[in-house]
Write a structure and sequence with these properties.
CATH topology of the largest domain: Immunoglobulin-like
Helix content: 10-25%
Largest sheet: 6 strands, antiparallel
Distance between the termini: 61 Å
Shape: globular
Number of domains: 4
Number of strands: 42
CATH class of the largest domain: Mainly Beta
Structural class: alpha+beta
Mean pLDDT: 96
Low-confidence stretches: 720-724
């Protein structure tokens, strides 16, 4: 039986002192939010209020609770905490019983000796760890290089410096008739043909139990009574990712006798194989090997090469204790509805709660899971290596066995000048070793990106003055695992930051910089891109117009990149943008979902770009003039599991509000499953249309239809009545 506790909280300056006063604490929760609720601090998301929370990272925080065990009927008593952040000591009746550093450990503390007594629990949470190894710059992510807290909390280009502490997962008292906390272990192997699944069911009890195993249709296919059972399933229904088949899940049920009663446990399991294979045309070695090729990055699920279409996932909340199954579901449903099939769980953020992985299992969303290393040199001190080993094993306990789990990765952007790590760095060798030992069938990457893979750019117009549209069609990466196009957040998100009247005209100040409209990468207009917007559309007359124009560039850029990455298949096998969501209200950034769950227009364009079958046009640039040649290439993209019958695609061009002009009918032949087909290159001289502001490429192909809006200008000497673009 599980019993929640009533917690109080206070802070002090030293480990040996006690809080002068305490207040109510929420568990799961964070010390910052509890203090803010008790003392009326303003919303940290508004303007620069987050700075009023900074001092809390340097205090000791003391949780306390009582449990009356005098009338406990059951013989076993435990305290269970599924996640405490970050370094902490647990006291029972003033005796220290447990100490730990790390936020992913499930603590199971035996309290049997206190049965018949009042049990007083005290958890002392230490200040935020701050490294002094490697000459870290104060108040930067450098301070994270000797711990396993999320690096993003120390400050990033989309995240303020706010570093949570506290009991961030469930914590409770468990009473039981069983001497051990129940830990079912369900594992399987598939034969080489994937037509037989061999199951192993284990549980840590010494008496007979009841097992039931149920297929995805609800049919019971196995029952057993031993704590250790083995059986086989012929022709198992495999788990598939979104767009490639059903995410079939089997259900296991375990009933354990507890004295005169029973306890029942249940879970889901999906059968799959996963591997990373070499991409087409990436073997670059001559006959005599003397170098290395690009590493394999084509993800094969159940033997089928998958084009991985997805996004980088960052924690949807700064204070991750606030994450609930419903909070996850509302965003993960959007991931699925956007025709995405993978999320790269970025190494700068947390490893998510169990419900995140359960939902990805259910929705068919593959998970690329990184360990908590990001953009630092994680020096292999004795302390850090031991800590990383413990945390890695605790993370594997959380993730391993989920059907959605497809890739382990050491961390984000570790092989570069600012991180300075290599494949010989001991931290990465350790992670490779642990993951191989415990999950040998899940691929491991040392970091992202590796040779051949791409991170960036994150602007619509690059620093060399070229559009992302121009650059992307000449790129040649095996995988695009980060790329971004910035845009302002929606107005409902901006209203959470400050009064909207303070945001127009948009200028750099304390608020707009703190919320990453300016100076996200030092000095400059990252991420608001005001000058870029003005160069395309002229001066904006209102905040709404400025936002709309910036969001137009984002949706054009994102759709083009996703489609172009797919056009480069099979040499390219992944398109994973930066990023899907954001953890607090930003003025502007690269996300497609504004905080807390507001959809930008680019989301819908990405959904179109990620359809299993799509007719697409590779045009050359965004801006055109009257009498200029509009040139574009035609492609029919097929990531589907079925071949395509011959079809006709009608190609039209429309300038302004004029009637569309039919350019050609493209006769597409039979296309094999999971295969693209390239078509002709078309050229059309754009007519002179006074006051037109856009031209469109229209591909009429039923469910595979596409439409692209480009910018059109008619020079004054041709059409003197041209008006200002009013997008």
């Amino acid at each position: 039986m599980k019993t929640s506790l009533v917690w109080n909280l206070g802070y002090c300056d030293t480990e040996s002192s006690m809080p002068k006063e305490t207040f109510a604490a929420k568990v799961p929760g964070s010390v910052q939010l509890d203090y803010a609720a008790a003392y009326g601090l303003p919303d940290y998301r508004f303007e620069t209020n987050f700075e009023q929370y900074r001092w809390m990272e340097d205090k000791y925080w003391v949780y306390s609770a009582e449990y009356d065990a005098r009338n406990t009927d059951l013989p076993y008593l435990r305290f269970i905490a599924k996640g405490i952040d970050y370094k902490y000591d647990i006291y029972v009746n003033e005796t220290k019983k447990f100490s730990h550093e790390g936020m992913y450990r499930t603590v199971i503390l035996d309290l049997n000796e206190y049965i018949g007594k009042i049990v007083t629990l005290k958890i002392v949470v230490h200040p935020v760890p701050k490294s002094n190894v490697g000459l870290p710059s104060p108040n930067t992510r450098d301070e994270q290089n000797q711990c396993c807290k999320p690096a993003v909390s120390y400050g990033w280009d989309f995240h303020p410096r706010l570093i949570p502490l506290g009991i961030w997962e469930e914590a409770y008292i468990e009473t039981s008739s069983l001497p051990e906390h129940i830990k079912p272990n369900i594992s399987y192997t598939l034969n080489t043909k994937r037509d037989v699944a061999a199951l192993s069911l284990r549980v840590n009890v010494d008496e007979n139990v009841k097992w039931r195993f149920v297929d995805p249709d609800g049919k019971v296919i196995f029952e057993g009574v031993s704590p250790s059972e083995n059986f086989e399933i012929a022709s198992p229904l495999l788990w598939w990712c979104n767009g490639y088949g059903a995410p079939n899940l089997y259900t296991w049920e375990l009933t354990v006798p507890c004295g005169d009663t029973e306890e029942t446990f249940s879970g889901k399991i999906g059968f799959k194989t996963v591997s990373l294979e070499m991409n087409a045309n990436t073997w670059s070695l001559p006959d005599f090997p003397k170098s290395r090729s690009c590493p394999p990055i084509t993800l094969c699920l159940n033997g089928i090469p998958i084009f991985a279409k997805g996004s980088n996932w960052v924690c949807p909340e700064i204070f991750y204790s606030e994450l609930t199954p419903q909070r996850y579901r509302e965003q993960l449903q959007l991931v699925k509805d956007a025709n995405m099939n993978i999320l790269r769980c970025w190494g700068g953020a947390i490893v998510n709660k169990e419900s995140f992985f359960d939902l990805c299992d259910e929705m068919g969303i593959l998970v690329w899971q990184e360990f908590p290393l990001a953009c630092n040199n994680y020096h292999a001190t004795e302390h850090y290596m031991e800590l990383l080993k413990c945390e890695a094993n605790d993370i594997i306990d959380r993730v391993a066995g989920h059907a959605c789990h497809a890739i382990w990765c050491g961390g984000n952007e570790l092989f570069n000048s600012w991180s300075g790590m290599t494949d010989q760095s001991l931290a990465l060798r350790l992670l490779n070793s642990i993951t191989f030992e415990r999950t040998p069938n899940i691929p491991f990457l040392a970091t992202s990106p590796l040779m051949g893979m791409g991170h960036g750019s994150y602007l619509f117009v690059y620093h060399n003055g070229k559009e992302v549209v121009e650059v992307m069609q000449h790129s040649n990466n095996t995988a695009y695992t980060e790329f971004g196009v910035p845009a302002f957040s929606n107005l409902d998100c901006l209203q959470q930051i400050t009064d909207l009247k303070n945001l127009f005209p948009m200028v750099a100040n304390d608020v707009t910089c703190a919320h990453h409209g300016f100076d996200a990468w030092g000095k400059g207009q990252t991420w608001c891109s005001k000058d870029t917007i003005q160069s395309y559309f002229g001066e904006s007359n209102s905040l709404e117009q400025l936002v709309n124009r910036g969001q137009f560039l984002q949706k054009v850029g994102y759709r083009f990149i996703f489609e172009e990455a797919r056009r480069q298949k099979p040499h390219c096998s992944m398109a994973i943008n930066w990023c899907f969501n954001e953890p607090w209200p930003c003025i502007a950034n690269n996300s497609v979902i504004c905080y807390p769950n507001s959809i930008k227009p680019s989301y819908y364009e990405i959904a179109k770009a990620c359809r299993p079958v799509a007719a697409t046009a590779r045009y050359r640039k965004l801006r055109y003039r009257a009498e200029e040649m509009l040139e574009f290439d035609l492609f029919l993209l097929n990531d589907g599991v079925s071949p395509l019958d011959p079809m006709e695609i009608v190609v039209l061009v429309q300038v302004g509000n004029e009637d569309p002009v039919r350019i050609m009918t493209w006769e597409v032949p039979y296309i094999e499953a999971n295969t693209n087909f390239s078509g002709p290159t078309l050229r059309y001289c754009l007519p002179v249309i006074s006051n037109a502001e856009t031209c469109k490429i229209i591909l009429a192909a039923g469910d595979a239809s596409s439409e692209y809006t480009l910018l059109y200008n008619c020079p004054q000497h041709i059409a003197p009545k041209k008006k200002t673009l009013n997008m």
